[in-house]
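Trying the structure run again after the queue cleared.
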Amino acid sequence: MSQHHAGVRWKRTSADFTYASYNRAHEMVFKNGDIVLAASATPAYKGDAGRVDPEEAFVASLSSCHMLTFLAICAMKKHTVESYDDAAVGTMEKGANGKMQITRVVLHPNVRFADGANVTAEMLADFHHQAHEGCFIANSVTTDVTVAPRG
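Done. C-alpha cells:
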C-alpha cells in the first residue's frame, strides 16, 4: 500500500462572493508545496483558460500513467523507446446516472522505438494492452479508457 498526497489552495480575490463573481483560480499543490500547478475551473464554468482545469488534469493523469506503464513494459522486454507523446482526449457528458462526468478518455500515443527494435504492430498493440491493464489510474476509475495509437 502507498499513499499519495496532493492539495489545493484558494483564496477569494473578488469583492463579493456570488456564483458569477467569485474567482475560480487556485493552485494544485504537490510535494509539500515544492510543486505548484496553476489551476482553475474549465472556461465553461467561468474558469481561466490559461490554467489547468481538473478535467484536463484527470485526462493527463490517465495518459501519464499509461505511458509510464508502457515504458516499463518495453524496458523489461528490452525494446528501447526513443520518444512517446500522446494527445489524449476526454469527453464530458451526462453519464448513465444523469450526472456530468468524464465518460471516456481516448489516448492517442505515438511511440518511436530505437533503430533495430523490430517491434511489430501486433507487439505494439499488445504492449499498449498490457499497459492499459497495468495502469493504476485506469484501474481506479469507471471512465471508459481506449488506446488508439497514432502513426
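DSSP finds two helices and eight strands in the chain. Worth checking whether this holds up in the mutant runs.
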